[in-house]
From TrEMBL, chain A:
Keywords: ATP-binding, Nucleotide-binding. Signal peptide: none annotated. GO terms for molecular function: ATP binding; ATP hydrolysis activity. The keyword Nucleotide-binding applies. InterPro entries: AAA+_ATPase, ABC_transporter-like_ATP-bd, ABC_transporter-like_CS, P-loop_NTPase. It holds the Pfam family ABC_tran. Residues 381-413 have a biased composition (Low complexity). This is ABC-2 type transport system ATP-binding protein. Residues 281-321, 377-413 are annotated as: Disordered.
TrEMBL record, chain B:
Residues 28-254 form the ABC transmembrane type-2 domain. PANTHER family: NODULATION PROTEIN J. It comes from Herbiconiux ginsengi. This is Transport permease protein. One of its GO terms (biological process) is response to antibiotic. Belongs to the ABC-2 integral membrane protein family.
């Protein structure tokens, strides 16, 4: 984590800590958060529920006084001059910002007045936001009568009424259908493009962080465990996943030998610096005949997952009953270069590969590599194997269908 | 866009305007909430007339001012539930992040309580005139001001209770019910306490609501110089001061 404090820094936090006492037990919600966010950045705070993301956000937005530590947000100290911070930031919380029995436009007018805007400025800005967020036809409706997506758009409009240069969003897309989610992100990205707004967003949807943020902070148990770009996180912390399908019964030994050869060839081609195929994959094939798949663990640590989880769709798509379909999953670096070599070696050994898929790592894989736990199914370890099969990019056309179904739909910017 | 720092007075006005907007948009909501006092007037009133053995007009003269205080009591006693709801949905949080003085968040809401009381009590007073209730206009105006001051204080306490009941809304209703009904009965609002046991009369002497009820009766009867009026205002102002102090303190600790 770099510690620089220039005039272009819009958030600086040092040792920010929050402890709660719940039933006489101390809970460390956030511990020693150090953070520098530059003007114009789009930062995603990623972590499972209860990791401390919202608590961090609530401290930075002056909603919660820190137990320890300091933070300067938008040029003002959160403890020393909270009112000045509040005037300069926008905050879109997890809940519904609009009052239930308030009309949509009325809430915007009230909000503008709260921020000290003149009546004329407020009215103009309110109409502008109603238009751009497709809320104009709903202006006279009460918040109670809005759908979830419409309420969320109003939340955004309320957060933007004073055109803040720094916008905090706490789990903005939770509970939204894929279309509303795509729509919401489009608005956020437009905002950034047009006004250079700094955006700080918490999410537990790794796809969002992956797709939209150039900088990702992963939080777990109240601590930031990594702070890097999404791309760099994926290349340094998680490998590519190759999934091969074989038809016509177990030929595990042959496959294992071919993979071992492929590994050597690939390693030679890549001059030894990469292309190492994680071990343990081959042995697993022999161990689980009849439709087994195995996701090799990156570290020596056991996965805790149930490898059989992802195999069902494969069996289903294969011949009904008689012929078993085998699937094999490998975690490799530079999968795009390993896969062709692998296919050639298997072919040379007379082993027919019926399907081959390369999946780029997701932030979920990163989280798994960092913590040994899956981000998506926090607390549901049995499902982790299936969930890591979630698609990350279009190369995963043949990814297990169960995982595809359970994964939130991706949106394109 | 120019963002200018706002003063607490401006903040209070902004909060008040926001609270009043739904009322202005849908004024009938005020009339519908008159159902409960109307039930008491229509169903309890005749029983009271029958059991008192006095003419209807005289009984109404005693009973209607009590009903007006009841409107203020029930209307403002439950108002905290609106804040409780806004705390649960997130719109209260939104106002906490906005640059609004914490005290204004409470005072603006509490001031709003005065408006419905004045409208509702005015309507009820006028509706009962054809049935023999006589109104002294000056007394009625002063009486409505007294009710508004009481409502400001009791509403603030209701908000403070809501803030204290965060994440436990059952507690709000339990305390609210446990407070409002004893206050009502021990104020001599529905039935005179003179015939009750001595301990009830002692309890009533400590109930600020008793003084407000007695003052309202004197005011509507045109007895403007009665000491009861003074005591009514003392009780209402003390309650308002305590209510605002407790309410503002709770709001400052609000998260």
């Amino acid at each position: 984590m770099t510690s620089q404090s220039t005039s272009d820094t819009i958030i600086t936090a040092r040792g920010l800590t929050k402890q709660f006492t719940v039933k006489r037990t101390r809970v460390d919600a956030v511990t020693d958060l150090d953070l520098d966010v530059a003007r114009g950045e789009l930062v995603a705070f990623l972590g499972p529920n209860g990791a401390g993301k919202s608590t961090s956000l609530r401290m930075l937005t002056t909603l919660l006084p820190p137990t320890r530590g300091t933070a300067v947000v938008a040029g003002h100290d959160i403890a020393g001059d909270p009112a000045a911070v509040r005037r300069r930031i926008g905050y879109i919380g997890q809940g519904t910002s609009g009052g239930n029995n308030q009309r949509v436009r009325d809430e915007l007018l009230s909000q503008g007045a709260f921020y000290g805007m003149s009546r004329r400025d407020t009215a103009r800005r309110a109409d502008e936001l109603l238009e751009s967020l497709d809320l104009a036809p709903l202006a006279k409706r009460t918040v109670m009568g809005l759908s979830g997506g419409q309420k969320r758009r109003l939340d955004i409009a309320l957060g933007l009424i004073h055109s803040p240069s720094l916008l905090f969003l706490d789990e903005p897309s939770t509970g939204l259908d894929p279309q509303s989610r795509a729509n919401l992100w489009q608005h956020i990205l437009d905002l950034r493009e047009q006004h250079g707004t700094t955006i700080f967003v918490t999410t537990h949807y790794l796809e969002e962080a992956d797709q939209f943020a150039e900088r990702v902070l992963v939080m777990d148990h109240g601590r930031v465990i990594v702070d890097d770009t999404a791309v760099s996180l994926k290349t340094t912390l998680a490998g590519d996943v190759i999934t091969l399908g074989f038809d016509g019964g177990p030929d595990a030994r042959g496959a294992a030998d071919a993979i071992a050869r492929a590994r050597e060839v690939a390693a030679r081609q890549l001059e030894g610096n990469a292309g190492e195929v994680t071990s343990a994959a081959a042995g697993a094939v022999g161990g689980r005949p009849g439709g087994a798949s195995y996701r090799a663990p990156r570290s020596g640590e056991a996965m805790g997952g149930q490898p059989g989880g992802a195999t069902n769709p494969a069996s289903r798509t294969g011949d009904a009953g008689a012929t078993a379909t085998q699937r094999l999953e490998l975690v490799v670096d530079h999968g795009d270069r390993v896969l062709p070599v692998l296919l050639r070696e298997l072919d040379a050994s007379g082993i027919t590969v019926t399907s081959a898929a390369l999946r780029r790592p997701t932030l979920d894989d990163v989280f798994l590599a960092l913590t040994g736990r899956s981000l998506r199914d926090e607390g549901e370890t049995t499902a982790s194997a299936a969930s890591t099969g979630a698609p990350a990019d279009p190369t995963t056309a043949t990814a297990p269908t169960t995982a595809t179904a359970s994964a939130p739909e991706r949106v394109s910017a | 866009m120019t963002i200018t720092p706002t003063s607490p007075v401006r903040d209070t006005a902004n909060v008040l305007v926001r609270e009043l907007r739904p009322v202005v948009r849908d004024p009938f909501s005020l009339i519908f909430s008159l159902l409960q006092p109307l039930v008491f007037l229509g169903l309890f009133g005749p029983l009271l007339v029958a059991s008192s053995g006095q003419p209807a007009s005289e009984t109404l003269q005693w009973f209607v001012p009590g009903i007006l205080v009841m409107i203020a009591l029930f209307g403002t006693g439950t108002t905290g539930s609106n804040l409780l709801f806004e705390m649960q949905t997130g719109s209260h949080e939104r106002t906490l992040v906005a640059p609004i003085a914490r005290s204004s968040l409470l005072i603006g809401r509490a001031l709003k309580e005065m408006a419905p009381i004045i409208v509702q009590a005015g309507v009820i007073a006028l509706v009962t005139i054809p049935f023999g209730f006589s109104v002294n206009p000056a007394g009625m105006l002063i009486g409505l001001v007294l009710l508004a001051v009481f409502g400001l204080g009791f509403g603030s306490l209701s908000y403070a209770l809501a803030l204290a009941s965060r994440n436990r809304d059952w507690m709000f209703w339990a305390v609210q019910q446990a407070t409002v009904f004893p206050l009502m009965i021990l104020s001599g609002m529905l039935l005179p306490l003179e015939g009750g046991p001595a301990w009830m009369q002692v309890a009533a002497a400590f109930n600020p609501l008793s003084y407000v009820v007695t003052a309202e009766r004197a005011l509507f009867a045109g007895d403007l110089s009665s000491p009861a009026v003074l005591w009514g205002f003392v009780a209402a102002i003390v309650l308002a001061a305590i209510g605002l102090a407790v309410g503002i303190r709770s709001m400052k600790k609000s998260r």
